[in-house]
């Protein structure tokens, strides 16, 4: 399994395929070709100084007579953890705050309206160790913890909606921990929070000792720039999870993740792209980068997490998608979306109209009953 030395699928295709083949391969793997965004020179200079990748693309929609284009710029951030996992907790959090502040400043230069960070962005990825201290010390209040207050400042200073996925400690309800995304309005107010609905239990990739399945359903947040929701990491394997955010009106669904090559790299390009197609919305898949060395673990089997392969991307309802950010470097992906594309594609493919939800609602309601017998017709 390749680590950082294999930079990206895109670089590999471009290096090895003759141009006519490359164009056909890209047509199939990436859909309609996207225009590169003309981002400011100072943004590229700052990104290079800060040693992260910056890419930008525009998704276009057809002109309409009655509606004006609904343009929004989203920013996706992927990053390594700057300090080793055995550094003091407060220092690790501060280093991550500093790193993200530098990236958000570049996002602001690029006109980003909504930015989303990776899953549990304030900590090393320790969920599979099954140890408590020091990892549970990274948990914070979603409403007024230090990270939320930090993000409120960013949001207000840059007039930007901030989606901040953290490990939440809910001290109002018995100190329960949750895997949560806090949504902060561009005014700086906390708009609300949403929790991860599905927890991985995939062999050693098991996060179930840290937090419970979310209990907040599928909230959608009305922002000044459009309706957004957050399907956290492993939730992307569950088509019904995407569907419910879409049924509640999400036009952009963020998928902040932490996932490794051996487990999911072949699924990664398919799932969020497919969800954008199936639900007539934009999806933003974000993954962290690098290896995480969690030294305190007592169980050898849970120490080696493998390689977090980055490759964050945005997909549109017409199946087009951006290239991925690199597998090896911190990065900011900026995408200009015209949200009118959601309704335009819906009117062509009609998945909502032809979805037969009442039939599935009836059948599912029966299928979950303890005495249900599957309908199998035998000779
Ligand atoms: N953090 C998390 O849910 N990881 C699960 C891995 C995956 O879903 O690919």
TrEMBL record:
Q: Where is the CN hydrolase domain?
A: 72-339
Q: Name one GO molecular function term.
A: beta-ureidopropionase activity
Q: Which CDD domains does the UniProt record give?
A: ML_beta-AS
Query: From what superkingdom does this record's organism come?
Result: Eukaryota
Q: Which cellular component, as a GO term, is one annotated location?
A: cytoplasm
**Protein's UniProt keywords contain Phosphoprotein:** yes
Q: Tell me, which GO biological process terms does this entry list?
A: beta-alanine biosynthetic process via 3-ureidopropionate
Query: EC number(s) for this protein?
Result: 3.5.1.6
Where found in the cell? Cytoplasm
Pathway membership: Amino-acid biosynthesis; beta-alanine biosynthesis
Tell me the function of this protein. Answer: Catalyzes a late step in pyrimidine degradation. Converts N-carbamoyl-beta-alanine (3-ureidopropanoate) into beta-alanine, ammonia and carbon dioxide. Likewise, converts N-carbamoyl-beta-aminoisobutyrate (3-ureidoisobutyrate) into beta-aminoisobutyrate, ammonia and carbon dioxide.
Q: Which family does it belong to?
A: Belongs to the carbon-nitrogen hydrolase superfamily. BUP family.
Its quaternary organisation is: Homodimer, homotetramer, homooctamer; can also form higher homooligomers.
Q: What is this protein called?
A: Beta-ureidopropionase
- Per the UniProt entry, what species is this protein from, by scientific name? Colobus angolensis palliatus (Peters' Angolan colobus)
